[in-house]
Records
---
Amino acid sequence: MKVSEVTIADLKQYAHVYHAEDDALFTTILTACKAYIQGYTGLTADAMNSREELTVALFVLANELYDNRSFTVQDNKVNRVAKSILDMHVTNLV
């Protein structure tokens, strides 16, 4: 599955959410995750689609955002699975 093919229904299934109350939230999360991946890696949307493993990072990030909606920060680290996948595709290193 390509990043552009991911829907909020896919994210909800991954997060085991079976109600419609959070559809607007999942829409925002999907948009934010795509922007985060693109900004983190420096890849274009087309380049992101050619790397299907980034879809896994999108699911992990989206689930993390949904599960951790509170403002409390317990750990200042990015999810290790998502970080390792994204790090493989970084093109905007300084």
---
Amino acid sequence: MSGANAKVVWLDGPGELALREERLAAPGPGKVLCETVVSAISPGTELAAWRGLPPLRPGVVYPRLQGYCNVARVTACGEDVESVVEGDRVLSFASHRSHHLLAEADILYRLPEGADADRVVAAYLFHLGYNAVLRSDVRAGSKVFVIGLGALGLASVAMAQLAGAEVYALSGQAAPAKLARGYGAKQVFARDDASLDTLAADVVITTTNGWGDIDIALHAAGQNGTVACLGFPGRGEPAPETNPFDSQYFYMKQLSIEAVGWSPEHDDSRGFNRFNERANIAYLARLIEDGRLDPAPILSGRYRGEDIARAYADLDARKDDAVTYLLDWN
């Protein structure tokens, strides 16, 4: 059993992408060697690092690996691997790279025969919207307002609609507004629409970073509503001119404002973390395979893995109203 030469994407600094070759050893016990079939760009996270926005947590910022939506084919298995065999395709959080070694425990999902890797690779992007819906207690009949219609915003619209909510959205661009309506949004507002003050949403899901959109969220939320933040309010911006915790909104409406980007990674031994990351991703992958969830509208095109710099530049320029891209590694 031999290893492989891997081409790996590194971000050395803002705008400084490099494709480096690394030698991978043969898989040891409990590990599998994989050849990437396709990876998907998570535009919010990846472009923020590429642009040089402030990091979300302390520590070394660069160099860093990019990406975490990866479907690969198993080419070799180490000893004691039981859940997959050579030739199986697996979904994982591996970065953008041609090959990788993966612990069996880090396999998120094994794709069944015939499943479309191009669609299943986007499952985690929808998981973030799904987690926002779960964490903010969206139920059938809830009024949900999604701010921002990038990949996460559109995923949140789709997940809220699937949960039975009455979904509204906000965007200043015609193309994503059309996609949101395709995912079930009843209406897409412009940012200067005065009727937002009377929307009275039960849940507002914010997927952008601007303080101005937080102000809109506070206006649009109803009494005892929830503002669920998938974005990072104020990231890369100066302090806001208005108080986001102004008493007329935060206190008088009794709003809950919470971060909803993380979920438990695993269930616990007694099932208290039932809606954990792995279970959620497997559920969404099955929805994609069954045709009940279609990632195609947010997958705007594809590039070779080696051309990731051009893909980032085109996403940053919003070329042809792109939402995100796939990267081919075969």
---
Amino acid sequence: MCHARRVDDYRALNRASWDERVPAHAASPDYKLAQYEQDPNFIGDVVRFDLPRLGDISGLRGVHLQCHIGTDTISLARLGARMSGLDFSGPAIDQAQSFADRLGLEVDFHQADVYDAVAVLGEASYDLVFTGIGALCWIPSIERWARTVAGLLKPGGRLFIREGHPMLWALEGSKHPGLITLGYPYFETEAPMVWDEGGTYVETDVEFTNNLTHEWNHGLGELVTALMNAGMEITGLTEHDSAPWEALPGHMSQEPEFGEWRLTENPERLPATYTLQAIRRS
């Protein structure tokens, strides 16, 4: 449920929500930690979905921004990159580091706000910046984020992002069959959308108490323009009709290969996610 209430420190509010959900996410079968432990070649579905676009990343120095409990970070490390991860949640970073250590992987995780990434990780230090599904909605300024990405990358370094499409984030499902409405902003707004919702996006029986969050949408044109203004060159943009979670409950069906969800009827009508690539110009 979206409300108009807000607090000044959106980071503290959002961090409390994410901190509380870490143990439930690590224990949920949806994050597949058991598969990572049982199979040294296992990589998560989100990374596997994009393998044709990701290509060979062996030997690259990479960082995964807003990495949460680090499963996608670990997947990238298993593909040969020397990975770091960064997230603002202390419990998430502790979980990610302990899991990577248990798997015998050389991955280092850092607790920091994404806007502080250059100060924490070093300027022009990386060949690859990766960001996954559900990250950009937690930041208020896409321009500032783009400058952060450019600051982390070496000249010629590459950004790779798969994210929920801003069109999807702007939609609101309905209990009426087939009815979906435009319920939320498509473009970035100064004021956040303030949500008060229990539960989470993975399978769990845990009941949470920190349910108030602040979120923002960012139009696709705003993202592309922000990256170009930061000295990045767009090298790829693919829109997909599927998402790795049931974004519009009651309106979507799941396919088996990657576990992705798309509209049950006329899936060609909705861009649900996108994959964008860009390089930092010299």
---
Amino acid sequence: MKRPTIADIARQAGVSKGAVSYALNGQPGVSESTRQRILAIAREIGFNPNSAARALSGATANAVGLALRRPARTLGVEPFFMELISGVEAELSARSYALTLQIVADAQTEIAVYRRWWGERRIDGVFLCDLRVDDERVPALEELNLPTVVIGGPGHTGRLASIWADEEAALVETVEYLVALGHRRITRIGGLPGLLHTEIRTEAFTEVCRRLGLDQTRTVPSDYTGEEGARVTRRLLSSAERPTALIYDNDVMAIAGLAVAQEMGLSVPADLSIVAWDDSPLCQLVHPPLTALSRDIPAYGAHAARRLLAAIAGDPITSYQDETAHLTPRGSTAPPRPTPPPTPSAI
């Protein structure tokens, strides 16, 4: 993997490197048509003309990039990304590397950010998060030849290396545990539709429920926020056939759901069992403490950073399966309350 260089522009334009330098720096020595052709090629391959001098020197940025397509306010309340970044930073700082973070609105803006970072020599590599099915960012990063590690998978990453965990196995373990407790009406409050890990969890949930003969189960989409998690929970618990167990795709929604259940006068876990994905200190601070899917998220981030630094150094890297989340039972799960027998009709 290598950065776009003046030599690349010269080769595509069919001119000398000197002519490219003249064009990029606005100096005389090339015709206007040649200048415009060179500038167009520079934009196409992600080379920013304002960085020509640094490009010629071959200097590295000693920084890596992370662009996130999420509202900035969610980062301050979602422990997963804070723990992931802490692991990334621990590994980067030990190598005197910095992390450049930017919030973006959509995929096209994110791709433009990668092109600008790479062309302006601001970063030496990037992490790609929140992988989508048929993600348009993957071929764009392949085209840039930008060192990349995808945090997510498996699959759907093209030639890009990834680090991923087995979402399906963790989901199956959770459902089997709840069924062993006696639950039959189980609902999953999922994350953002379209994210690859959301789709993997949804398919796994549907399949394990079918295999276990559960016919009162479903997945309800949400957006990871406490507000939406509370709204969805309130609607589910107000239904005639309310679930006896809820599985949330993150800890923030699970904690909001616990508050709603208590607000509605339900006892957790006697009336309702709750499981949170991605354990965090928050899960142990509420009452009752939440049963959760636990894994070492800072280590996950550190492993991703280690692989990206290896790619930047020119070492071959391959996709890597990290630790699978395991279930940690706590006070929020128990056998469901027995259904009272029907009252005999008066004669």
